[in-house]
TrEMBL record:
InterPro entries: ABC_transpt-TYRBP-like
Pfam families: ABC_sub_bind
Protein name: ABC transporter substrate-binding protein
Gene3D superfamilies according to UniProt: 3.40.50.2300
PANTHER family hit by this protein: ABC TRANSPORTER, SUBSTRATE-BINDING LIPOPROTEIN, ABC TRANSPORTER, SUBSTRATE-BINDING LIPOPROTEIN-RELATED
Source organism of this protein record: endosymbiont of Escarpia spicata
Length: 340
């Protein structure tokens, strides 16, 4: 046995050892906590949300829907987006192929909820492949009615997109004495055909004769705009899908030709329109995001009613109004958003 005499015993050496052990344990504990912290977001975001947009980034309506949706779902689920790009590609076979591509993504990724925006996703994804499926769907931006898609299904709910047509027409009637003849100018697309049909019904109810021009190119649109100056007022449909559209060129060309009041329900058409009562795309995205969270919390789509949008913005374009000589009431100008 080795014996230590009093002169060999140094208690500070044992104290240093204890400090070293405590420091080593603290470092290890910190590393464990940091590792767990890195794992935590994966646990929180374990549920998957897939967003299928019918159109493409850069299209104002789609961008607004996406902003609204992301503002609700960001950080709440593992978010993935698929853009079908069917506004610029109108061929039926292309739309079917994009629907199948979306289906393959859904089948492989297995999202907990799918959110779709606008008609083509509803038609070529939900209706074509997922009627009464186990995967829940939330749609938004379907124009006017869901009857043609057979909604609701047991796994589908959402928000219908309805333009504030009647308030817009009521405002036109209040603003000007002559309002019996109008023309609708828009793109030659399925969506615009549906919008035009709704405007025709609404104008018939108030005794307004409505003609229309649905065009394919910017040149055709400019001709239609020039010819429209012989009407009492102009209803601006969407330009989305019109080939060769150049914002600067269009705004420059129409300014000297502008004589008649123009109105729209599309916010992105305000650079070319005097007065707008416009839908709010962010509302569609926000509502869909909230429904998606409800579903992730256990709600069933079949228990959630399909609703229409409830908001709209008022816009005015002072440059076009000045060029035309048309003067709107001060209270309307004061509460309106200003187009640039």
């Amino acid at each position: 046995m080795i014996q230590m005499n009093r002169s060999q015993y140094r208690p500070e050496q044992h104290e240093d050892t204890r400090h070293t052990l405590r420091n080593s344990f603290s470092v290890r504990l910190l590393l464990v906590l940091l590792f767990l912290g890195m794992l935590l977001p994966q646990t929180v975001l374990a549920e998957k949300c897939l967003f299928i947009s019918s159109y493409h980034k850069g299209y104002a309506w789609s961008d607004g829907v996406e902003r609204g949706l992301r503002s609700v779902l960001e950080g709440k689920c593992d978010f993935k987006q698929f853009d079908m790009d069917t506004k610029r590609n109108k061929d039926l076979e292309y739309k079917k192929a994009k629907g199948l591509e979306a289906k393959n993504l859904i089948d492989n990724w297995q999202p907990d909820v799918v959110i779709t925006a606008d008609d083509n996703a509803a038609k070529f994804v939900i209706q074509a492949h997922y009627k009464d499926h186990s995967i829940p769907f939330v749609f938004c931006g379907v124009n006017w009615t869901v009857k043609e898609y057979g909604f609701p299904y047991s796994n589908v709910t959402g928000m219908v997109e309805i333009a504030p047509i009647q308030p817009l027409l009521d405002k036109v009637i209040a603003l000007q004495e002559n309002h019996e003849r109008a023309i609708y100018i828009g793109a030659n697309t399925l969506t615009e055909t549906k919008n035009l049909a709704r405007f025709k019904k609404a104008t018939e109810r108030v005794g307004i004769q409505l003609d229309s021009r649905l065009v394919n190119t910017a040149e055709e649109w400019l001709v239609a705009y020039r010819d429209a100056q012989k009407y009492d007022f102009i209803i601006m449909g969407s330009n989305s899908g019109i080939k060769g559209w150049d914002k600067e060129q269009i705004t420059t060309d129409i300014l000297p030709k502008t004589r008649r009041l123009s109105v729209t329900s599309h916010g992105w058409m305000m650079p070319y329109t005097m007065l707008g009562f416009t839908k709010v795309p962010e509302e569609q995205g926000e509502w869909s995001g909230l429904l998606a969270l409800d579903i992730l919390d256990g709600a069933k789509p079949s228990d959630i009613a399909i609703v229409p949008n409830r908001k709209w913005d008022i816009w005015t374009n002072s440059e076009l109004l000045a060029a035309s000589g048309i003067v709107l009431p001060k209270n309307l100008l004061r509460k309106s958003k200003k187009a640039h």
